[in-house]
Amino acid sequence: MLLLLAITALAIAWLRDLFAAVMLAGIYGLLSASFFVSVDAVDVAFTEAAVGAGIFPLLMLAALALVGRNEQTAYRRPLISLLLVSITGAALVLGTLDMPAFGSADAPPHNHVAVRYIEESPKEIGIPNMVTSVLADYRSFDTLGEVVVVFTAAMGVLGLLFTGRAASPGSATERANMYDHRVLRVVSKMLIPLILLFALYVQFHGEYGPGGGFQAGVIFAAGIILYAMLFGFGNAQRVVRPALLQILAACGVLIYGSVGVVCLLSGGNFLDYSQLLPDPLVGRHVGILVIELGVGITVASAMILIFYAFASATVNSEEVA
Amino acid sequence: MLPELYNYWVVILLMMTGFYIVIVQGNLIKKLIGLNLFQTSVFIFYISLGKVSGGSAPIFAEGVSSYSNPLPHVLILTAIVVGIATTALALALVIRIRNAYGTVEEEELQQRDLEC
Q1: Which one of A128, A175, B66, B92 is most buried, counting C-beta atoms within 10 A?
Q2: What is the DSSP letter of A123?
Q3: Is B39's Cβ below 8 Å from some Cβ in A?
């Protein structure tokens, strides 16, 4: 698995064709997702599969449509760089010689806070998925910060690219070229509802199985983006309006933050869900559900907004040309 | 010796490949792909650190006593989503550069700057 990853990475470095490099980057994302499954990181694998193999190549392709797929310039000082990279790599390899062996149970990372998470969280939080309890309860303040970063990045992309002009339905650009592929159209028509349904399952089942707001958000966004690519950007904008998405993206952060404020008002610390309801366990459960919902809404709308921004930039540049 | 540290060495190889792309290639999009390789290698490093041999995925189940470390999973899970958001921001900047300069090759950009 790791060997395959390494080969893909070297091929990306080797290729001059950007389109092929982006496709390989997608394969690389899928391979790393499978690696994450093999080392028990199921939640991470979910996210990486949707982001690394789905959204990342799509955004790159949208950018390539604007920028062109060919690299022109020659490599700059390749030998010196190769030397520099090899020396850095050798130094890092030297550093690994002191590291604990892969998978050893008495390695330092497993002996401090992780022990408490593993032993206490099923009783203390009352949900089996430890990743969700750490993400949404023990480290909820961190997660709030990350949601705000996603939101800010989406707003930044909008500020840079969005012209506010929706593609007029019925124009030549409305029907993406893919529309003519009957197989793709029929298969995706069947798949898109399932993808959206699966995203909701991942969203609300995050306490018991692998899943949660981040994963559900990217899967949901991938479903909508698939729709936009096959049935045209204008149609997708009529189904999911950009203005609505902007409000939703802000609402997600707002939901998350206001749960924290409600906890403060009921006499606990910021984001201390046990204060929400008389029974602390139920309170924690409700708190986690609500903030995961906030995370999911923000991540999904941010990702779709980013895609819209790229797509509208592409459409506009085509109309100018 | 070899199987024990094998993961970390592959991570270093991936990281250095990404680093090399960022240094050598002049195309801004290719640089972003390289940066992404670098980023993913860090993800793989963290997740490798969290693995416990014989442990199961960190979801509580009856009869399972050994779990992999959930903390790196949480950190990387959010890092992936934040990473794609920041990559998108970088791509948006590249597109604006392209609109302003007509190119995304670093050397041509520098020449344009010098001419002004």
Answers
A1: B92
A2: H
A3: no
